[in-house]
Amino acid sequence: MATIYLDNNATTAVDPRAVEAMLPYFTEQYGNPSSLHGLGESAAQALAQARAQVARLLNAPARRIVFTSGATESNLTALRAALAGAKERRRIVTSAVEHAAVLEPTARLEREGFEVVRVGVDGDGRLRLDELERAVDERCALVSVMWANNETGVVHELAAVRAACQRSGAKLHIDAVQAVGRLPLDVASSGADYLALSGHKFHAPKGVGALYVRDDERFEALLAGGGQEHERRGGTENIPGIVGLGAAAKLARAWVDGPGPRELGELRDSFEDELSERLEGLEFHGRASARVPNTSNFRVEGVSGEALTQWLAAEGVCVSTGAACSASRHKPSHVLLALGLTPAQASGSVRVSLSRFTAPAELERAAELVVSGVERLRALAAP
Ligand SMILES: Cc1ncc(COP(=O)(O)O)c(C=O)c1O
Hints:
By secondary structure, this protein is α/β, with parallel strands linked by helices. Helix content is 44%, strand content 14%. It is globular. Pyridoxal-5'-phosphate binds at residues 70-72, 99, 101, 146, 150, 175, 177-178, 198, 200, 209.
């Protein structure tokens, strides 16, 4: 039975072209980029090339990119760096639908004495901009919001967030993990002071990511060490991973600039239309909002999301009940609760996330199996 992989918001397959680019850096070009000999020099060149490739994906100057171990580290670095220069500003404004990689460190900062305001979303997953605008004033040091949500795919209205930050002088951090490689992004017009991305969400390997840093002044490295990354992140650089990230960034840039996002969105929409035609009691989450083109989140009345996910897994279809990390904790999704779903409705939800490698035939088969899975589970539950 061939696997149909529809859990790309959890992680993606590494593009074989990225793997190929990485291979020489394990066994042939294994130098340390800080070394002065030829092997060091070629590692340094690879590092520079990858930095330029990631920068091009974001439309940023290359020197503004810092390589990290992924978005968890990038987010934490951004939060710490933004607050290092905050002085008497003690408020952080974030949203109720952030990933754990922002929720957890902001909760920690709250315990350390910062005031944290978590702005809600409406029933379609859109940020409540009125709440945000009220909270972002001269007491606010930092606003941290995601570009696109990992569960619903809803794209946040960042222009209003940017304007609020500019009015109040607060720094803006954007967790762009689920938008990078799915939408064309322009970091300059986003107004971000910091922007986080993670390689494994766009066909680069796991354990490598980047942080865009608009201004090094007062920037404080989270990992102090040997002065790598222009004093912004200590530790010998993960050259093979960074080369893979650069190669994936180059491929992603070409894809987002072409018809890819539109075509992927059409594929996702046709999957949703097919389910709508064939299933009673189906509700989509975030469908009325702007979304990244690869994500669909829905629930079917009377059917447990976990049971459907497991039924599909047994048929070779990989989907998820929500964020990979919270799905394994068996808790209803905080994102869906924030949309106003009851815990039972949130637990009934399923996330299907595509990638540029998803074939139309795979999605047709998946729709078929969702319909038969729902029928089967309803039959089992019938008195
Ligand atoms: C929106 C968002 N932010 C941050 C992360 C964390 O990325 P990583 O696990 O690569 O550090 C993820 C991963 O699921 C995510 O979806």
